[in-house]
Design a protein that fits this description.
With 108 residues, this protein is mainly β. The protein has strands at residues 6-12, 19-22, 30-39, 44-51, 57-58, 63-65, 70-73, 81-82, 88-93, 99-107.
Length: 108
């Protein structure tokens, strides 16, 4: 039986490291199946991470959002990216503006 995706969202200020989006689930990966994000009036870089208790490890390439620009990843049953099992999902932002992020995920 398929899972119903759950929603996460955050307004992440500029220059954040490993800002938590989804908490870790024991022995499960977090699979992001859809996502949209928009940065404010200044261009901002964004990288998604798999976050253990220490520093996170990048699980996406650096995404460069232009001023007032963003990214849309439509629903993808196979997912866009996964965390390491037992680790949470976090995001790191560069200097620039606050970035609004909303997405759907399942645990696998």
């Amino acid at each position: 039986m398929a899972q119903n995706p759950r929603t996460f969202f955050a307004n992440v200020t500029a220059s954040q490291t490993d800002s938590s989006l989804v908490s870790a689930v024991s022995e499960k990966s977090i699979r992001v199946v859809s996502l949209f994000m928009v940065s404010g009036a200044t261009a901002t870089n964004v990288t998604f991470n798999s976050k253990p208790s220490g520093a996170g490890s990048a699980i996406t390439a650096l995404i460069a959002d232009g001023a007032n620009g963003g990214l849309v990843l439509p629903y993808n049953h196979d997912g866009w990216f996964d965390t390491v099992p037992g680790e949470g999902l976090s995001v790191t932002t560069g200097a620039g503006s606050t970035t609004g992020i909303t997405g759907k995920y399942v645990t696998i």
